[in-house]
Design brief:
The longest helix has 7 residues. The protein folds into 2 domains: about 80 residues, 2-Layer Sandwich (Glycoprotein, Type 4 Pilin); about 80 residues, OB fold (Dihydrolipoamide Acetyltransferase, E2P) (Beta Barrel), CATH 2.40.50.100. With about 180 residues, the protein is mainly β.
Length: about 180
């Protein structure tokens, strides 16, 4: 009996409040490939009891205890205890993390480090809610940043090819009056 179903999906883990994007490939035999920053980490995972798994890689094997409360996961291993939240693509879009944070002032703020791939608007251009503003690549994932306001582009603070940091303003949209 397989305990795992094969799938591949981009995730964003919130670990201690910091976004950590990665690609997960889960194979039906319990093998897990996690890709982050161009590195692939391969593990095998075996369920040994409710909420308990042996996770092994080429370095060794460790027992982990998992519990879930709401969307928060709590993981306990020998000498390590941490919490994380996994957001899949739908949750990222719903929370607008994969599409950028836009505050009430219309500033589009980068939620994580990345590289500007495409800018879809120009200074002074009128935009509508949901209109694409720019595309950022982070962890081999392209994230489209959308306008949360009907308005006009007041500022474009980045150029194609620029690296952006978490919390950096990229575009500012002023509301139409």
């Amino acid at each position: 009996m397989n305990l795992f179903h094969s799938f591949m999906q981009n995730f964003l883990a919130q670990i201690n409040g910091d976004p950590v994007p990665f690609l997960a490939k889960i194979l039906s035999d319990g093998q897990i490939n996690l890709e982050r920053d161009g590195h692939v980490y391969t593990f095998t995972c075996k369920k040994v009891a409710a909420n308990q798994y042996f996770v092994a890689n080429e370095v060794g094997e460790e027992r982990f205890y998992f519990s879930k409360k709401g969307e928060q996961w709590h993981v306990l291993a020998v000498d390590q205890d941490f919490q994380f939240e996994l957001l899949n693509s739908q949750q990222l879009r719903r929370q607008n993390i994969g599409g950028a944070a836009t505050d009430a002032s219309g500033q589009v703020i980068s939620p994580m480090p990345g590289k500007v791939i495409e800018i879809k608007v120009k200074l002074g251009q009128k935009v509508k809610i949901g209109q694409d503003l720019l595309v950022i690549e982070a962890m081999k994932m392209q994230n489209v940043y959308k306008s949360k306001l009907d308005g006009k582009v007041n500022e474009v603070c980045v150029s194609v090819g620029d690296s952006v940091e978490k919390g950096q303003m990229m575009v500012s949209v002023g509301a139409e009056v």
